[in-house]
Amino acid sequence: MEPAYKLSRRKFLQAAMVMAAATGSGVGCSGARTPWRFLTVDEARTLAALCDQIIPPDEDPGAAWAGVVNYIDRQLCGPLDHLRRSYRQGIAAVNQSSRMLYGSAFAELAAARQVDLLTLMEQGRAPAEAWKQIASAEFFDLLVEQTMQGFYGDPRHGGNREGTSWKMLGVPYPPIRGRLHFDVSKQ
């Protein structure tokens, strides 16, 4: 039986080259050679330091360990993709402000300096030259909101690793819908 469509080696190689080129041409949320979908490694490092100042580790894990950066990264490639520019500009402005004020990138600063810069951002008093694209207070508010969501939300969204915040609060893992209405153990 003769195949319905004959594909020459030349056509196959042309198609394979087109597919290979198309695979690597995605912008933003691609499967690049980093563990992140949207963030660069440096952006993720800065974001981890920022989030750990909002929910710092103490006797319980902080935001970075709980996977808040992973949560934010996943959301930026999904339902919150409209915030990509805000994060790119905000993280860049944080590092620019940090270098202007303290001579180092934010993640390299001592914790007290990081808190000082976050306080300036919250008050809208961070160096204006660094914050031309997004207001520092606006980025600070966004960061706090997203950090809280990633830390306290459902782990299936990429944050709250191992139910960290729920364990910290003494809250059991929420039951699956329908589980309260039907006793599945008797089936």
TrEMBL record:
Pfam families: Gluconate_2-dh3 (PF13618). InterPro entries: Gluconate_2DH_su3, TAT_signal. It comes from Candidatus Sulfotelmatobacter kueseliae. It comes from the Bacteria. The lineage of its organism: Bacteria, Pseudomonadati, Acidobacteriota, Terriglobia, Terriglobales. This is Gluconate 2-dehydrogenase subunit 3 family protein.
